[in-house]
Amino acid sequence: MLTAVLSLTGAFVFGAADFLGGIAAKRIGAVLATAVAALAGFIGLAVATPLSGGAWTVADLWWGAAAGVAGAVAIGLLYACLAIGPMSILSPLTAVVSAIVPMLWGLATGARLGPLAPWALGLALVAVVLVGFVPERGAVRPSITGIVMGVGSGTAIGAFFILIDRTSDESGLAPLTVNSAVTAAVMFALVGGLALRMRAKRPRMPRADEPADTAIVARDRARGIRLAVVGGLVNAAANALILFGIRAGELAIAAVLGAMYPAGTILLAAIVLKERIAPVQWAGLVLALASAAMLAVA
Question: In 3-state terms, what secondary structure has residue 111?
Fold first, then answer.
């Protein structure tokens, strides 16, 4: 019960963080949004870690660092695909993949699944097809690029769950702090590399209306950075909830229940962005959540 409560709460918080990250990525780019969010999350976790207590080992920090690399790939691809949109389609796709990966890992490492697991995996595949099928004019349609990024993000999220599960229960939030530090370092290195590449290009001639355009761009970037900061803090809170959920029970259950985060993203996308979803896509979303619930009890 504790695993379910923590994981489901973490999933809802993840959904809000993904929505904020996707909006920030539209304004400042996925790489910078991920870097800023990771730095904000690191600062928040660095403050909270001493309060969580516990005793960590070098192995815990190494596993946290490895999870940080996976997290950098996962969040970077996630924010990028959500920026492309539609959020209400690509977010569930990443969720289904992120739920299946830990299950497959469990099978490969000798874990035994219940009789519902094969049916749940089949239902998940049907859900992906329905979610990506757009029969109505005007309904949102995901691009191939967005789908590929979504699958890659879901795989990396699943890898994050697997790696963070290797940390000891006594390590508190220390692995997550290292995870955020590594993610921030990787993403800011990419930001620096992209900045140097842009500076190497020949500067263009200034336009007469550039000051006004520059001011607008500056305000837009500042708004995007603020969204990324808030998203990073929210994402750090979600990671902490999921981590405690994993430690309270089984990895597969926590990961699958944590994969229900699209509920928060879809709700915010529908309310704020007014994204339109076809009835068959709603059916796919329901099946995706149903498959996640079946996997949790399989």
Answer: coil
